[in-house]
Inverse folding.
């Protein structure tokens, strides 16, 4: 890399790019960390497009991770005021809107366990198969499930007006929606706001209890963000209309950066599983399935390691795709190895609450896993949009994340030419293949490249107002200039937020570029794990992940370390630490759920309702 010869430097750059592909697809767990070689896959990534080699250890020493600038505890939910004795209806009927089954189960389970009032919940947006899998059988109209599926496939075909029109019909026709006294919302928030607004317009009070786990603007009609913001301001400035919290700290800061409103953190517990650690398979470790390429490579490597070390006396059970183990059986394993693909997994909270010892990748591996999928990989402009007129807090390195313009025509044309050249080479190799199966593989690779060319040519023709597609799926059209209607003038917020002088050094979105989409995220473009602000943002924000914070978790640095840890694990110590934290944090969570239910549904007085029998005093959280 330090050579004066440009050809040598170019060769080194190409070698690094090949290394990241061959040794660690999608930044997966590769064999470098598990070998005696003194390099890791991050060493290769951070040296691409550089003129001087620097190991990750050296980079970490010269660019240490800054400690959290905002106290983690300050993002936790706290009641706005002490709540006096509250009188609740004898029975509470809830409509639960959410497409994520376990995220939707969480608030219902907590309310059923701790409110002291019988809860009837009807679920909307969850597929019927979860009746058998999770016991979520009381489901409302299937038309609502289909509506959200259709809107997800083509969001521009379902503007706010069309979604509201169809939801208005369901609000009248569906028995569960008609009878609901409150709306529990997990996702999408846009749909929940529509339902609440429609009820209000008909003269009906339908308070919203939100428990969010995905991006604030998830599934919001792209051309109607003005309507979303107007509705959000209405409920956030009216405490009696809504109580909204989130299940992870990073999302709380994302929402604050976008709006200035605080949606505080309440951890998930997953008590609906009924699991309790009761290890009987003391030589067996369960490896939880993961939708990552790393799962395949990890499985292959562990099988070879265990075969080479017969005295290990530990067996690994890999969950197959589509396999569902009874929760009671999961609790019998010595430990569970969990390879996360997002930073806030309900599976993690389920296992942790059961006090089952968890084996998880170390910090450096987490950087390569958590930012591939889910909300932290989302860089689409829509999901990072800010409330109009709102000025976010000062962020030291935010200028490194300036919103770019759409890709240039020159970029599209050069990319198309490059894809064509590679496709020709792949086709030539296919013609020379020794057998039919190999030839098919080359042909498939060439076909994928041709599909990618279609997207590149669309960019070259500046067709940014049309959907396109690549070998990896649909690339949605740009919405930066796509709105065909004048935006609505949204209502004024009740008060202007005052930001702390010292906020985070990176925005809570800076882990991926503003213009990333399905294609660039899955291809891991020039920003992925490169030296600089974006990689530093990944490292900084990981400190706010529950994976890094919860006590009792055991971390492995590589696969041999996982094998050794599986054997030497002090399961009783790990489980005891988890149990203590579960007990402490449960007090906080119960306080929120009981407080919020009382705040939204309690009667003004006993005389105001003939159907009130439950009176209880809430614990003030301090």
């Amino acid at each position: 890399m330090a050579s004066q010869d440009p050809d040598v430097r170019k060769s080194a750059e190409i070698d690094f790019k090949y290394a990241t592909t061959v040794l660690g697809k999608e930044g997966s767990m590769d064999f470098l960390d598990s070998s005696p070689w003194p390099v890791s896959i991050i060493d290769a990534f951070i040296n691409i497009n550089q003129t001087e080699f620097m190991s990750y250890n050296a980079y970490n020493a010269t660019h240490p991770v800054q400690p959290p600038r905002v106290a983690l505890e300050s993002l936790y939910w706290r009641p706005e005021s002490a709540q006096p004795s509250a009188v609740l209806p004898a029975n509470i009927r809830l409509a639960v809107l959410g497409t994520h089954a376990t995220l939707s189960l969480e608030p219902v389970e907590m309310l059923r366990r701790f409110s002291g009032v019988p809860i009837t919940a009807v679920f909307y947006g969850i597929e019927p198969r979860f009746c058998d899998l999770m016991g979520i059988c009381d489901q409302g109209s299937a038309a609502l499930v289909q509506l959200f599926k259709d809107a997800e496939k083509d969001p521009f075909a379902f503007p706010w007006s069309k979604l509201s029109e169809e939801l208005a019909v369901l609000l009248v026709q569906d028995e569960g929606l008609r009878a609901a006294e409150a709306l529990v919302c997990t996702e999408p928030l846009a749909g929940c706001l529509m339902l609440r607004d429609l009820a209000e317009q008909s003269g009906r009070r339908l308070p919203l209890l939100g428990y969010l786990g995905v991006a604030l603007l998830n599934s919001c009609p792209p051309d109607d963000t003005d309507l979303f913001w107007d509705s959000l301001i209405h409920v956030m400035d009216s405490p009696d209309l809504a109580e909204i919290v989130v299940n992870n700290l990073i999302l709380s800061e994302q929402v604050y950066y976008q709006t200035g409103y605080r949606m505080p953190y309440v951890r998930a517990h997953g008590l609906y599983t009924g699991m309790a650690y009761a290890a009987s398979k003391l030589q067996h470790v369960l490896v939880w399935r993961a939708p990552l390429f790393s799962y395949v490579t990890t499985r292959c490597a562990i099988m070879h390691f265990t075969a080479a070390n017969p005295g290990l006396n530990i067996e690994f059970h890999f969950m197959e795709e589509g396999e569902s183990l009874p929760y009671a059986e999961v609790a019998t394993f010595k430990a569970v190895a969990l390879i996360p693909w997002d930073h806030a997994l309900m599976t993690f909270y389920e296992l942790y609450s059961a006090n089952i010892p968890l084996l998880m990748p170390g910090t450096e591996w987490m950087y390569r896993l958590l930012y591939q999928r889910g909300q932290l990989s989302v860089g689409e402009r829509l999901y990072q949009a800010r409330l109009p007129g709102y000025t976010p807090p000062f962020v030291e390195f935010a200028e490194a994340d300036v919103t770019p313009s759409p890709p240039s025509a020159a970029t599209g044309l050069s990319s198309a030419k490059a894809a064509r050249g590679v496709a020709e080479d792949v086709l030539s190799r296919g013609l020379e293949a020794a057998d039919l199966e190999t030839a098919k593989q080359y042909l498939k690779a060439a076909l994928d490249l041709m599909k990618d060319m279609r997207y590149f040519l669309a960019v070259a023709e500046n067709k940014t107002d049309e959907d396109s597609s690549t070998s990896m799926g649909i690339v949605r059209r740009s919405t930066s200039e796509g709105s065909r209607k004048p935006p609505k003038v949204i209502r004024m917020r009740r008060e202007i937020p005052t930001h702390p002088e010292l906020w985070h050094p990176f925005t809570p979105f800076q882990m991926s570029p503003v213009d990333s989409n399905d294609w660039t995220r899955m291809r891991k473009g020039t920003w992925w794990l490169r030296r600089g602000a974006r990689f530093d943002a990944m490292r900084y924000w990981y400190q706010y992940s529950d994976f890094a914070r919860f006590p009792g978790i055991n971390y492995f640095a590589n696969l041999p370390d996982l094998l050794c840890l599986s054997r030497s694990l002090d399961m009783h110590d790990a489980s005891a630490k988890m149990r203590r934290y579960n007990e402490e944090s449960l007090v906080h969570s119960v306080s929120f759920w009981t407080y919020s239910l009382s705040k939204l549904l309690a009667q003004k007085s006993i005389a105001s309702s003939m159907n009130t029998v439950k009176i209880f005093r809430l614990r003030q959280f301090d």
About this structure: Residues 518-524, 604-622 have pLDDT under 50 and may be disordered. The radius of gyration is 26 Å.
